[in-house]
Specification:
Number of strands: 7
Shape: globular
Radius of gyration: 16 Å
Strand content: 15-25%
Largest sheet: 7 strands, mixed
């Protein structure tokens, strides 16, 4: 198990692309293969917005990813699918002038979870939002724990119970602890058997944002 002090956060580089493809498979075993990003996608992230995409490294081993892009998100028409908004993984919807950072992916290798790596990746994203004076972060959040409850409650009921603290969800509970709010539910967001394709719409607002 990697000592947390030996893990460093860096911006994405082309040489990390093959390892990031493998990290996707290690982190998301229940996702349909078509939902996973490949090396060619990460190479495009390097080209479009390297300063907003981060990797966690233990030595030269890639053990985490926090990626995304800027976009003018339309909260009045918030329903969308993962593949639609991430342009099939290429992040082609990146708008350098966009008001919001869309969180495309955050993943930490199973062997080093619960050791603060995810928090550091979220902090790197938040720092970019603050430094570039954007409104905040918006994302679709997986709810992996719903797999254990979907016979007894709806996805919305499950999320409400996680928010209330009655149920712990490894992803959503962590995101709530990072200061995110749930603004709604996204139906048919991603092909994931654990969540019956549901996700949350989560938002973190930048408290330092200054309107132009």
């Amino acid at each position: 198990m990697a000592p947390i002090e030996d893990i460093r956060i860096e911006t994405i580089k082309p040489e990390y692309a093959p390892a990031l493809e493998k990290l996707q498979r290690d982190c998301f075993p229940t996702l349909c293969k078509s939902e996973l990003m490949r090396a060619e996608h990460f190479l495009n992230h390097c080209r479009l917005f390297p300063e907003g995409n981060f990797v966690a490294l233990f030595g030269e081993q890639v053990v985490g990813l926090g990626s995304g892009f800027f976009i003018d998100f339309d909260f009045d028409h918030a329903q969308h699918s993962f593949q639609e908004i991430i342009d099939g993984g290429f992040y082609g919807n990146h708008d350098p002038a966009g008001d919001w950072y869309y969180g495309g992916d955050i993943s930490v290798h199973p062997d080093i979870r619960r050791r603060g790596v995810g928090s550091r990746l979220y902090a790197a994203r938040k720092n970019v939002v603050r430094e570039m004076n954007r409104r905040g972060i918006v994302a679709g959040g997986l709810i992996p724990g719903f797999a254990n409850y979907k016979r007894s409650m709806s996805a919305r009921e499950y999320v409400d119970q996680v928010i209330a603290g009655g149920i712990y969800d490894s992803t959503l509970s962590f995101q709530l602890g990072q200061g995110f709010d749930v603004r709604g539910m996204l139906e048919n967001y991603i092909e994931d058997e654990a969540s019956d394709n549901w996700a949350t719409l989560i938002v973190w607002e930048n408290p330092a944002y200054r309107p132009s």
